[in-house]
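Can you please make up a whole protein chain along with its backbone structure tokens because I've never seen that pairing?
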Amino acid sequence: MKESGDSREGLHYLGFPGARDVTLVKQGGGASYTLKFIVTAVGSEMYLGSLLADGNIPEKGDCVYSYVWRASSFLYVFRNVKESASASGGQCHGQNAGAVGKDLTISSIYLGYKLKAPNPLAMENGTYTGKLTLSMGRNQDFDFGAGTYADTQLTVNVTLKVRHQIKIDFPAGGNRVVLQPPGGWHDWIYRGKSNTPSYIDAVLPARFWVAVPYHASLSCQYLNSRGDGCQIKNDKNDHKVSVQVYGTGIRNREWPIYAGKTDIYAYHRILADSSRPFRFVVEKNSVKEMMKYPGSTYRGDITIIIDVAIN
């Protein structure tokens, strides 16, 4: 150690970087997000050939002073970074007159940090990984003062797991669907088909992330006579027809959803970590009745209710 105007040659010197961005990538593909790595404390284990008579090392830099712990010929320093320096980076340093002219070995470095994560409510279920590589040396990300370095890099690996009980994303305008025959009404009319379509349907795209059992049910503006399903109503008279609602499960199996029933579905029977659309269907016999009223429109509100099954 030297008595000089260069703080890097003092007994205690730790330069640290400002906040750094870490890109988190979902395993298996999907969206990526940004996490911030912020240094909040720095410290070191230092070895001197002989114990200092006075182990006090006043803080002259960007840290908050703390007492030094001494054991045999080892000194331990661990100091909190001032909040104003956490974002931009800085240097924590101090000197002890008794150390001037002595050799110093830094055997361990201590690091305190915080991770400012992206909003987990906006993230998909899954495991995200990222890596941050920081340099070590003179005027590098971490600068431990004058001397030689046995290593020149520090790699920080980050793993973040997101596990929503249940999360559902619908597209913009997903609160309205229009039922049509396969290929649409224009295709039906263009081909001059006079027979009744085998069905009319519509698909509501949705994405789900589920980690617990859940209930699924319907609430209907127009309830059918059995009380277990929804109907839509002719806007020119009181004629109504039933609409079947399905959740599309794994391997595209369709699971019926009922009104007035809160069936418990285990994990991914209907919902899963990918696109699992809902399907609304009016069967052929009902379509045949609807076609007796050309030029009219059938409407109705159908609410799909999905919530966690709490014991």
About this structure: The chain has a mean pLDDT of 86. The two ends are 65 Å apart (CA to CA). Residues 262 and 294 are 37 Å apart (CA to CA).
